[in-house]
Design goal:
The protein is α/β, with parallel strands linked by helices and 309 residues long. It is built from eleven helices and 14 strands. The protein folds into two domains: 220 residues, 3-Layer(aba) Sandwich (Rossmann fold); 71 residues, Alpha-Beta Plaits, CATH 3.30.70. A six-stranded mixed β-sheet has the order 6-7-8-3-9-10, sandwiched between helices. A hairpin with a 2-residue loop joins strand 9 and strand 10. The two termini are 35 Å apart. It binds adenosine-5'-triphosphate (ATP). The site of adenosine-5'-triphosphate (ATP) has 12 residues, from helix 1. Pfam families: ABC_tran (PF00005), DrrA1-3_C (PF13732).
């Protein structure tokens, strides 16, 4: 089921929380919304889940508009809100049964769905505990189970790992990845590693606008443009090596980064690789390469560069 967002705008008073956002999500895709605090991620997710109505623009899910058919759309969406509100004094089974009834799942199917969710979300050992007795990681699993109980095609997860310890984060990410094999997933985060580890595609949002949209690899390419290599060469005088490398036409600049280890940082001209020419030059001069590795622009740097303005 595809999601099509067209010119979505939501204002709170004079402020545009979401400002003319348009994008598409294909069925089966896992999309990460990334952005600093207040960027507009939650507002966009609420509009997609029909919890708020935008002033302008539209969202179409499976061809249905949120303006005309919110009830139809809600049946296809599972939503895990920020801070995962749960009824603390219910046990897991009672809570999930309650949510199943809210979704009007036929009575004779509820038991089977409950057991399914307990299994999928790894809640077997805890299912009779009260929600307030659960660890945060398990509470988050219950949040996922309630979002999935009506078997929606689309899952919208607002900061699903916030407040979890590193082990719990890994577990929830694995669970999302597993679920993402069968469903369209949109999740938000301000942690880059999170979206990189979980999502097929990343959208960076800032001040209510989409400023970048692509795979992690595309983002890196877009940001760095040129090949950057870390090169270590021995078997010759550093000045001679430097001069020989300068002869290579595809090399744009060379920096000496460690004199003792004879390490250089090499930047190639746009759209060219210098790897083969470096290798040939070293062989021709009886130098030997101690290191040759591409330097990737860190997504952290790209994120900071794009959202600090
Ligand atoms: N109910 C509201 N009333 C007034 N302003 C709001 C309301 N909800 C959100 N905003 C404002 O809209 C902007 C976008 O908020 P939103 O919650 O969508 O951002 P976010 O990217 O999800 O941020 P965070 O990562 O901090 O959760 C913020 O400036 C926020 O203060």
């Amino acid at each position: 089921m595809d999601i099509v967002v067209e010119h979505l705008t939501k204002r709170y008073g004079p402020q545009k929380a979401v400002d003319n956002i348009s994008f598409r999500v294909k069925a089966g895709e896992v999309l990460g919304f990334l952005g600093p605090n207040g960027a507009g991620k939650t507002t966009t997710m609420k509009a997609l889940s029909c919890f708020i109505m935008p002033e302008e623009g539209d969202v179409k899910i499976g061809g249905y508009s949120i303006r005309e058919h919110p009830e139809k759309i809600k049946k296809h969406i599972g939503y895990l809100p920020e801070n995962n509100p749960l009824y603390q004094d219910m046990n897991i089974i009672d809570f999930l049964e309650f949510i199943a009834k809210v979704h009007q799942i036929p009575k004779h199917l509820i038991q089977e769905r409950l057991l399914d969710m307990v299994k999928v979300c790894g809640l077997e050992g805890e299912k009779h505990k009260l929600i307030r007795e659960l660890s945060k990681g398990y509470q988050q699993r219950v949040g996922l189970a309630q979002a999935l109980i009506h078997d929606p095609d689309i899952l919208i997860l607002d900061e699903p790992t916030t407040g979890l310890d590193p082990n719990q984060i890994v577990e929830i990410r694995e669970l999302i990845r597993r679920i993402g094999k069968e469903k369209t997933v949109i999740l938000s985060s301000h942690i880059l590693a999170e979206v990189e580890a979980t999502c097929d595609r990343i959208m960076i949002i800032n001040n209510g606008r989409v400023i970048v949209d692509g795979t992690a690899e595309e983002l890196r390419k877009q940001a760095q443009g040129n090949e950057i290599l870390k090169l270590g060469v021995s078997g010759g005088e550093i000045k001679d090596i430097f001069d020989q490398l300068l002869e290579i036409e595809t090399i744009d600049s060379i920096d000496l980064i460690d004199e003792e280890k004879q390490l250089f940082e090499i930047q190639s001209v746009p759209n060219e690789s210098s790897v083969k020419a470096i290798f040939d030059t070293c062989v021709a001069n009886n130098y030997y390469i101690t290191e040759l590795t591409p330097i990737e622009t860190k997504l952290e740097d790209i994120f900071r560069e794009l959202t600090l303005h």
